[in-house]
Amino acid sequence: MAVNFLPAQVDCTSSTTPLPYTGSPLDLLWSDIKLFFYYAYALPGIVIPLGPWGSGALDELYPSLANIHDMALHLLLIVIHLLVLISIPICLLSPIPLGAFVLYISIFFSANYFVCLLLNGRKPILESQVNLDNHRFPNKHEDEQWIFLNGVAVGQHWLQSNIDRLSLTFGRKVLGVHNPTSGIILDVLECLIQRDFSYSTSDIRNCYVEVKKALMNEKLKKVVFILHSQGGIEGGLILDWLLADVPNSLLERLEVYTFGCAANHFNNPLHSHSQTDKHWLLDSLTTGRKEQDERVVRYIEHYANSEDFVSRWGVLNFAGSDSHTDNRFVGRLFKRDGSGHQLNQHYLDNMFPLETPNGPVQEDSDFMNVLVDVEEKKAVKRESATVNAIDRKTFSQPNGSSIQHLANGVKDTDASTEYLRATEANAARVQKKPVRELSRLWQYRNGGSPKD
Question: How far is CA 353 from CA 13, 83, 390, 430, in A?
Fold first, then answer.
């Protein structure tokens, strides 16, 4: 197994050029449609491999009656959606009265609603049902709130399976905010609207309320926000709202972890303008950057499978590709060599495997033992926009003198070169470390807590 690691973006925000995700919504939409077809070959990677089922009935493709029921309804919806999409241009080119066409579309959406009601149920928020009152989880972590936002094609049953698996994995109660499905095809269309037009659906607004409420709760010291698939798009929009609305002192309690993230950006500004000067970069060369001390949200991590279509269409394209080096996608990126998009079966079973379907998490995990291959060239190239800005701007130290330092015995006064050296140093210091030493989320397994 191979795992590629991309360190968190340095991005001193020196550039005044608008970021790509803030461009024309129509241009973004057209770009995303082209990107969809460019990566279409990876679509089977959403469900492959079909097995094994390390979490038993909690795995999405396990042949239980509840899973078969949901899969059958999704197949029915796919067929209906394709037939309707094919029929629409035929209707428009035929001499069909407008009223008849409107009635036809109304019947389709009504039928779709009632079929999806069988998948979604009526509860907007669910709670994990795992019994944590046993010797495996002596610490109840009552000063923490864990919130999960699901992705595409997830009905109530799969959402419950997701939060129960997360609860088993980390030994906490998990609140699941339901992003209801309208069928896979309509869900993808919704992703395009949310991602390119920054449109906030009701589940985004519901989840924002839950996260903000937890952050404002003085009894809580930590809020852990877990996102999967389309939930990454929605979570990114929620984070944008929180950054505009919640004091930094409260946002320091927030931690964000994504799996198969479909977002096109992830914002997380620096604490202060002073961190954009060269004095700060000089320290990073000698001590190694500590991004948790630099950013408003101290911890953001992204986990992706290399052959997962959604990851390729999202986080791997906008954070980890050579074509979007001018984008902002803050957070560490762990890219596992493999396929599959289902949260339980393809992500948690491979990254946080259980000893039995009832737990605990295996301490000797293949994924966590792998020595990471740091993508140093990408890490450096991703800072090109800031480097170009630095080339046009001279930074100075607080005392007003120009910057000079001795790094590895070489005296250098060029600001952009120094910036690149800081980036290279940050990447090199984690080369060939095991994933377990770099993953903060791993430290939460089996009810544990990181050593802050």
Answer: 38, 40, 45, 24
